[in-house]
Specification:
- The strands form three sheets. The chain has a four-stranded antiparallel β-sheet with strand order 7-1-8-9. Strands 4-3-5 form a three-stranded parallel β-sheet, with helices on both faces. It has a two-stranded antiparallel ribbon with strand order 2-6.
- It has two domains: 112 residues, Ribulose 1,5 Bisphosphate Carboxylase/Oxygenase (2-Layer Sandwich), CATH 3.30.190; 85 residues, Ribosomal protein L1/L10, domain II (Rossmann fold, 3-Layer(aba) Sandwich).
- It has nine helices and nine strands.
């Protein structure tokens, strides 16, 4: 099976010209052609950033609302109490609770895609840092997932539609999903555009030189496709 997959990968890679950088429209089209798995692969965007991940003032983190989602139904969990629980349930959250949910997660349950909390719950939710932090599910004010009760409906709606969080890793790279191979090219480009806009908006004031140094599109099992940087960073939904 490994030999077969390797052969498929090399055949897909031969469709690319590694000496050129592609426009976003060309890149997503090629990503779909080079996807070599039998399942509906995820299309990903990878950005190498010109910031220092060790410098607290140069962290790049935020959220992007993908206009066409991620191709799957997002399961939203909300840590809340009192009236906020009713508001979260009315807004369509899949799981709503407080101490009982915390105990369930401590026991190993993590069957959700987004976790949101009201500020008054964070003292208790904080004990889940080691569990949820490793999975990128820990509520955090910087990612917009710690919100007051009156904002719950909006944030839950955004999360259900396709709200993705991005953050700089230790090697100064941002990795973020932008959809599925089964999406139309125009939908993938629109989602890619939403991520680029969000990343550009959170550029640290202390960042010097070239902010985005390189950009690639790839699929779960496919080769990386280099994006034309000038065209990519200038993308806007307008």
């Amino acid at each position: 099976m490994m030999i077969k997959n390797a052969k498929s990968y090399h055949e897909a890679a031969e469709l690319l010209n590694k000496t050129i950088a592609y426009s976003p429209e060309e890149a997503v089209g090629l990503a779909k052609k080079t996807a070599c798995a039998k399942f509906d692969e995820t299309v990903e965007l990878h950005l190498r950033m010109g910031v220092d991940p060790r410098n607290a003032s140069q962290q790049v983190r935020g959220v992007a609302l993908l206009p066409y989602g991620l191709g799957k139904k997002m399961r939203v969990l909300v840590f809340a109490q009192g009236e906020a629980q009713t508001m979260a349930k009315d807004a369509g959250a899949n799981f709503v609770g407080n101490d009982e949910l915390i105990k369930k997660i401590e026991g190993g349950w993590v069957e959700f895609d987004v976790a949101i909390a009201t500020p008054d719950m964070m003292g208790r939710v904080g004990k889940l840092g080691k569990i949820l932090g490793r999975k990128g599910l820990m509520p955090n004010p910087k990612s917009g997932t710690v919100v007051v009760a009156t904002d719950l409906a909006r944030v839950i709606e955004d999360a259900s539609k396709g709200r993705v969080e991005f953050r700089l890793d230790r090697t100064a790279i941002i990795h973020v999903a932008i959809g599925k191979v089964s999406f139309g090219d125009d939908k993938l480009v629109a989602n890619l555009t939403a991520v680029i806009e969000a990343v550009m908006k959170v550029k640290p004031g202390s960042a010097k030189g070239q902010y985005v140094r390189s950009a690639y599109v790839t699929t779960t099992m496919g080769p990386g496709i280099k994006l034309d940087l000038k065209t990519t960073v200038s993308l806007t939904s307008a």
